[in-house]
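Table S2 (text version). Query chain:
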Amino acid sequence: MNRHGFWGDVQKNKSLLLMLTPAVLFFILFAYVPMAGIVLAFKQFNYGGGIFGSPWNGLDNFRFFFESGNAWIVTRNTALYNISFIIVNNVLQIAAAILLFEAVGKWFRKLSQTVMFLPYFISWVVVGAIAYNLFNYDVGTLNSILAAIGLERIDIYNTPSYWPFILVLVSAWKALGYGSVMYLAAITGIDTEMYEAAEIDGANVFQRIFHITIPNLYPTIIILVLLAVGNIFRGDFGMFYNMVGNNGLLFSSTDVIDTFVFRSLTTSNEIGLSAAAGFFQSALGFATILLANYAVRKYDKDHALF
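Corresponding structure-token output:
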């Protein structure tokens, strides 16, 4: 009976299942099949033996990763950057969405939304080039202006302490438009009768924002933050690599797990070490999303992901 019901559901929803097939195949091919490569984290890889024929070396790759001193630095940087991105980006995106919603002029709203959305489509390669032309010590725009007004030049590309602020600001600038659209869609879904009733009762615009708009955004905020928390140990390789490159002077404040894995593969050819770092990253991400979801379920079961 259950089997007949299952195939009956398949026949009934075959059009929807057919539309879903490309996405399922994509994740099977690019997410689940490559998981077999996890074995490299426990092997001393050589090209003669390949992935499955190379000799096992137990936890030696993990031991080398942690004893080298790089594990703590890249893990700390990855987590702190992503926490900063989550906080700063979401606050700015919510503020931008509220401002767009409250904007009176229709054309002003559309123009502002378009201008904010444009950076999202700019490649990180282009953003890195813009940053280099802006911050370069000799010919950068910033230092040229400082020199023209009689101030000392700033050696940004040799000073690690500047880069946490630069990367957080650049990330916020690039993500502002996309995130504000999602929050704006959630705001437009709020019942307008609540705003009308509040306005009749004499509530000003700030009271409406803090007592109607923001409380109704809580479910959207929680879902987006939970999804972001799942990637808290996964750095944006495109951003970090194109903004910093292989500048070793900045690694102490800009090196994340993703750039460390890439550099281990391309410079030292440590395939086992790279696989161990990647496995470590995935395990941390999985544990983090489970803990975050558990915390949300304790606070409000209806807002949890699962």
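Notes on Table S2: The CA atoms of residues 140 and 263 lie 27 Å apart. The mean pLDDT is 88.
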